[in-house]
Amino acid sequence: MSRPEESLPPDLYYNDAASRKYTTSSRIVSIQASMTHRALALLALPHPSLILDIGCGSGLSGSILSSPDTPSGPHTWVGLDISPSMLDVARSRDVDGDLFLADMGQGIPFRPGTFDAAISISALQWLCNADTSDTSVPARLARFFNGLYAALKRGGRAACQFYPKNAAQRTMISGAALRAGFGAGLLEDDPGSKNAKLYLVLTAGAASGDITDVVRGLDGVDVVSPRGRPAKGGMKRGEERKGSKRWILSKKEQMERKGKVVKPSSKYTGRKRGIQF
Questions:
Q1: Which of the residues in the chain have pLDDT under 50?
Q2: Per-residue model confidence (pLDDT) at position 115
Q3: How buried is residue 175: exposed, middle or buried, by Cβ count under 10 Å (0-12/13-18/19+)?
Q4: Structural contact between residues 117 and 92, judged by C-beta atoms closer than 8 angstroms
């Protein structure tokens, strides 16, 4: 069975008929509600907050966010979606959130520090959809995560449930979040089953601690990175500077293990040569 994002772009796939069918399916509504409650539990918001719903569709998750029965709620929310038909259904349902028609792959069109948190249910995999030959998936991911990082308040959190096609796509999406500066962790419910659900949990900045504080005590957590933006110069802690003596010796050892012939090292290895006149 083909994946929806491999058949048509989202704004065409979710036309009027598909949007109504999605919203009126009791099975889909139940699954969406379960994943939204799970995302809220991962956010662990202490009080009513302003939340961005990315790929909000017809407002199924938004209805839960604005419900007075929601823990620490009701929350105020803003919805973002690329499908006009989905947003039309949301308006017909008279949802409480403000709705915006936008492509998340072009960035998040809000002022820096606007939102306390963000959720996304079953949407991130659409960022990996290349509709035309000149569409750059890495560029779409970068614009999305950079925009989301800016739109969240420092210490803000995001919980994004998505369906990666394979391990490579899972790594590509989480890697793009790390490059944007997020602390990122992956949590999988019911791993290995047909009901498996994967959540990317993000923290923006260090105001409320790193990702381990968000998911501590939960089973199945794989912390991708507990740190935010890399240090200046792009070097990670413990990483050797390219061209240094230790870097050269390490490369030589790698080549020797591969059976290649390398020049012997000496006290002059890695030493900079003086300018010749």
A1: 207-210, 217-221, 225-232, 277
A2: 97
A3: middle
A4: no
Distances, alpha carbon 62 to alpha carbons 32, 70, 90, 244, in Å: 11, 11, 9, 53
Check residue 277 and give its pLDDT. Answer: 45
Give the pLDDT of residue 245.
Answer: 78
Going by DSSP bridges, is the β-strand pair 197-203/152-162 parallel, antiparallel, or unpaired?
Answer: antiparallel
Give the span between the Cα atoms of 79 and 271, in whole angstroms: 57
- Tell me, rounded to whole angstroms, the distance of Cα 98 from its chain centroid: 22
> Does residue 89 sit in helix, strand or coil?
helix
Beta bridge partners of 221: 187
User: What secondary structure letter does DSSP report for 160?
Assistant: E
Model pTM score:
0.75
Q: Are 186 and 198 in contact (CB under 8 A)?
A: yes
Element (H, E) at 189: strand 183-189
Beta pairing partners, 159:
119, 201
- Can you tell me the distance from the alpha carbon of 55 to that of 257, in angstroms, rounded to the nearest whole number? 49
User: Residue 232's pLDDT is what?
Assistant: 47
- The DSSP call for residue 148 is H
Q: Note whether 146 and 81 are within 8 A (CB).
A: no
Please give the full DSSP string across 40-87, using - where no structure is assigned: HHHHT-SS--EEEEET-TTSHHHHHHT-TTSTT-PPEEEEEES-HHHH
